[in-house]
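WARN retry 2 of 3 for item q-0093 after timeout on previous attempt; input resubmitted unchanged.
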Amino acid sequence: MLRRTILGWPLLAQEPTFTTSVKIVDILASVRTKSGQIVKDLTKEDFVLLENGRPQELRYFSREGELPLTVGLLIDTSMSQEKVLNAERSALRRFLDQVLREKLDQVFVMQFDMAVQLRQKLTSSRKALDEVLNYVDTPSRNELRLQTGGGTLLYEAVYRAVTGVLKDAKNRKALIVLSDGEDFGSEKGLEETVEAAVKSDVLVYTIFFTGGGGSGEGHRVMRRLAQGTGAGYFEVNKRMGIEQIFDAIQEELRGQYDLGFVSDQPARLSEFRKLQLLTKQKGLVVQARERYLARP
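OK item q-0093 returned
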């Protein structure tokens, strides 16, 4: 939860006057029509917010399309992904070409299989990111021969990203995870990983992409990671290719709303509280996190 010290939030984003400490809860949201088109022209008055079922007053509102982004690219490089890695690299390069604003946005690259490797620290360099993608690959035969543990450390990778690399990031934070959703060997569990992302205000976009097959469990895991953090879940299929999916993610990141409120019930203990963000206009679908961690 982002904490800001202000006296009286304006209706639109402005420089606040810093006085006494007030705990503001921030919610990043995307809104689409039922046909999937992004909606960018809503106002503060178009939204309704409930905390644990109680209506809350929105104290802060802005459109976040031009604010800096901090994005992590998490790529499953286990052997089950070998056939799709070339397509992923190509789509990632195109995504970076379209999204990355050098000296403003930052991106890091992490791969995971039987180990988790931070391939590129946070950078604004398009060249550095382009070069490192060449080395994101499945384990070599020698590495497989020397393998003592094994598995695909999906949860471990997401957990490390949100609690490590993104821990002190100040901008809007998002992960894009490309995987078949299978996890073998992580010390962290699915719900613990989702909680860590929620606590760190990180949106986890997931792209379910397999070299063929893929289990129902993988679908469920990837959907939970995304929806539990208020982000989008996508599947690569004949109707929607991976480049189209990256276009949709880019559109969401550039068309978000930032809403803030002060709870009418200050927290006495740290606890998760349910959030429900709606629009007064019928026929619109809001994508936002479903809970937040309230702290005293």
